[in-house]
Amino acid sequence: MCVLTGASTYKWIYVGHEIRASSCVEVKKRQPVATSGQYNVFDSQEKLTQVYCDMDTSEGGWQLIGKASQPDLTKVLSTSSTVTRSGTQGWTNRFGSLLVSEMRVEVTVGSITRAHWFYHLNTPRPLSQLFTLGYGNANHCFEDGISDISYTYDLLAKRQYNQHRCSALQDSCSQLGPRLNSCFTTTGCKPSSSNCFFCCIDGSFSFSGTDALSGQDRNSTAFFGCDDAKCCVCYGIAGDGRNFCSNGCTVQNGGVTSSTGEAYFYIR
Question: How far apart are CA 244 and CA 237, in angstroms?
Answer without folding.
Answer: 9
